[in-house]
Amino acid sequence: MEQPMLVMKNISKSFNGITVLNSVDFSVKKGEVHALMGGNGAGKSTLMKILTGVYTADEGDIFIEGKQVSIQNPDDARENYISMIFQEFSLIPTLTVAQNIFLTRESKTSAGLLNDKECIAKTRELLTELEVDIDPNEIVGNLGVGYWQMTEIAKALSQETKILIMDEPTASLTKKETEILFSFINQLKAKGYAIIYISHRMDEIFEICDRITILRDGKHVATENCKQIDLETVVQHIVGSGMDKAFEWKERAYSMDVTPVLEVKQLSSGTKVQDVNFQLFPGEILGVAGLMGSGRTEMVRAIFGVDPKDSGDILINGQKQNIKSATDAVEAGLALIPEDRRVQGLVLEHSVKENIILPILSKVTKGLLLNDKKANEIANGFVEKLNIKTDDIFKTTKLLSGGNQQKIVLAKWLANDPTVLMLDEPTAGVDIVAKTEIVDVIRELADSGKAILVISSELPELLALSDRVIVMHEGKIVKELKRREINSEEELQHAIQGY
Ligand SMILES: Nc1ncnc2c1ncn2[C@@H]1O[C@H](COP(=O)(O)OP(=O)(O)OP(=O)(O)O)[C@@H](O)[C@H]1O
Ligand SMILES: [Mg+2]
Question: Is Membrane included in the keywords of this UniProt record (predicted)?
């Protein structure tokens, strides 16, 4: 039998006495794309951080091509041909592709590192080898996001690599960009790389991966050939039982014959938002669809006052508002849960509780005294409601897994009880159970009379939630559809691409 490229054996890891990985076995073959799956907080990133030398295991052994290795730090990982592509882009938009790729190698090249000729030549060589059509001299900021991802990969592969780890690489990619990435992954596979692929998107796993390993609560649950396992079984392994809920649309009752809670009139902002008009009614969930770059995020940023408006009016309950900053927006009753929550939404050094109650401090404070009991109650309530995996509400937020951090941002804004809630990709990075829970929470809020706007690139989710869908293209609203008029996901996909 062929020797695996990587074997991790009996890997255990605890933090402060709490076991996060419990004797996990994991192995990847040469030329294989291996999915690593599991719910938020299952231990995926921790296992990969052990492989890349960010953490060291308490117990266990690592073998590469049959030889035992010791990985104590990131340099050891590099020496063992292990590279990781992180979900957050690490590129500098104002530099060229070549400069970005060679940026981190200062130690290896001498002072004239960005000394261009050599670095451009090397980049060209690398890109040709990878069969990617990018000009090394192109400024990264001018490239589409899909090509950023390719540049990230080229950067990871610019050092000799045998094992490549991707942590949710498609989270910010469109369908088309994802296709480009997938054909690229297939090329790497053919070249014999061992690829570890982390994602919460089931359809992708079945499309691109050969085998799948599932972790649950820090334990290895299953490793299967993708062709020999079905979606239901995968979900069952992740969840630990059958899923009792799925994304299912329910027609909801609300009136459009009343004053809209939010009305946007002729809004323009920069080049990305042009003459946008729409109304949002009490109890309504309005979905916003569109390709990456269609102006969806920019539209809500302009409404919320974080980007300047060139023209247009925002009315709340029929009253014209003068929103020039996020503070103005919050005062007017708006909330925006941003796309990039880890940067914009959380104080990572603070505890779970502090983050959740931050926007509502005035409501849990009497004079100068914090009503701690009430604050704890609220924080614990959200931890339970959104199933946030944390030891307790006092844990430092940065120690939570990626998906659980996202849930805290959501909790934080929900606690503030806004009149109009705008959510930008609310379930990116959260696991399948949490996704359905978030869908439920959003519905409950709408049922209680709130007006909700949801931007989402995940069509099943958008279809499950929306009462109405608007489609954006090049900064304009090009289509408006009643949910009941949309018969299938393909139909919506078509509306987005062919508008
Ligand atoms: N440095 C740390 N100190 C304490 N706890 C930690 C630390 N790093 C991770 N954890 C805990 O380990 C558990 C596993 O986290 P990990 O990031 O590996 O999850 P994950 O499977 O990657 O989840 P996600 O899908 O949400 O990214 C979580 O409960 C997390 O809070
Ligand atoms: Mg993770």
Answer: yes
